Amino acid sequence: MIEVLVRGGTVVTADSMELSDVLIREGKIVELGLELETDGLIIDASDHWVMPGGIDTHTHLDHPIERLGVRTADDFYVGTIAGACGGVTTIIDFSLQAQGESLIKARDRRLAEIEPDSVIDYSFHTIVTDVNPESIKEIESLVEAGFPSFKIYMTYGDKKVGDGDLLTLLEEVATSGGLAYLHCENDCAITHLIERHLTRGETGPQFHASSRPVAVEAEATNRAIMLAELAGAPICIAHVTSEAVARHVEEARRRGQPVVGETCPQYLVLNDSVYDPTVGFEMAKFVCSPPIRGIDQVEALWSTVEDGVLQQVSSDHAPFRYEGQKTGGRGDFTRIPNGLPGIETRLPLMFTYGVKAGRISPSRFVELTSTNPARIFGMYPNKGTLDIGTDADIVIVDPEKETELDPACLHSAVDYTPYQGLIVSGFPTVTLSRGEVIVEDGEPIVTRGRGKVVERQRIDPNSLP
Ligand SMILES: [Zn+2]
Predict the structure, then answer these.
(1) What homologous superfamily is domain 54-382 in, according to CATH?
(2) Can you tell me the distance from the alpha carbon of 53 to that of 84, in angstroms, rounded to the nearest whole number?
(3) Which residues have their alpha-adjacent CB atom under 5 A from ion ligand 1?
(4) How far is the CA of 202 from the centre of ligand 1 (A)?
(5) What residues pair up with 88 in beta bridges, in sequence order?
């Protein structure tokens, strides 16, 4: 492979920001410094920022919701192109265990789906839904095979894992060197609140939000943290939406418990005015779990991102089309597929509302969207930073270039964006994956299936950010 030299840019990592060239050979960074030379390809990055490629550890591409007979609208080809155009060079998606299925079979089934299609590097969290002696035994083999993280739902129909099974799982994850990634909402409370709404004839999308208030999330988060403490397991709390939830994470960390917390741009940029009933059924575009919170929670959540209470920002990309998918829930909010598209807009939104707005530094931006995700999920330092010997996964951003968000300029198969009309900066002009240019002038130039599975390490609870 030819050499590539990224010349004249400002290299931003989680701990520094300085003018530097980056020399790449065989897909790896071989030299950093000023006035480097090459006979190979030269990419001029002057007046641009050069950053580690984004890592999105929470995507649902080609993901089925059997109860509703739908799948997310982006397959692994379209979804990873959208990711690359938004500066993402690695995703961790999910392999979903069917009832009675082996975890390893579920992983293999998923690998066969992604291998022919993904244009960026990838791995999976295994979603454990059926806790039995066989699946418990497979956890250690998956950790050893480079799949050390396990997603557990405390709610969501047949995916839900009850407290006893959760504790069993956490114990096995702890002894195997894995990490549990938890969706925390109180299932009984949600069921109760949904029934109350439906018996009153309250069927609109806004009642999705009021059936999952902050207390539902905070209670389950606290319970998960306590069970993890009993089991001695490191955990990551997915999609924290509010201050009350973040405080549980903060208190656990203060006690020295290996707990990390994630949030997503939708909880930092949107607020619950999206569920204003005067909007009509189009509120369904914003139906996700947990739901979008009030403006006071949004401001408080920003402070937890700024001051280090939460460690990473992922997208929870769960793209459903409005026409034909979200509209299936007309007359019954429980039949609206949950989720928002976000893989392509995560970095620009965090760049605009975080860095440009003066809330977080450029280094903190890199830490939240790339370095910490790599450290939490066993990919650091090969992914998540720019250093000699690491994969040359790089995004080059013109910090001044602005884009107005509209589905027409995005690459997802979804027919809307939750961020319609917002003016953002932070889209990459160039994305490099292992030294190969896969986005140029904002447009994808990719070979289908070029992405590779990332070999992840076991999780050392002491090295979590
Ligand atoms: Zn999710």
Answers:
(1) Metal-dependent hydrolases (3.20.20.140)
(2) 9
(3) 316
(4) 26
(5) 54
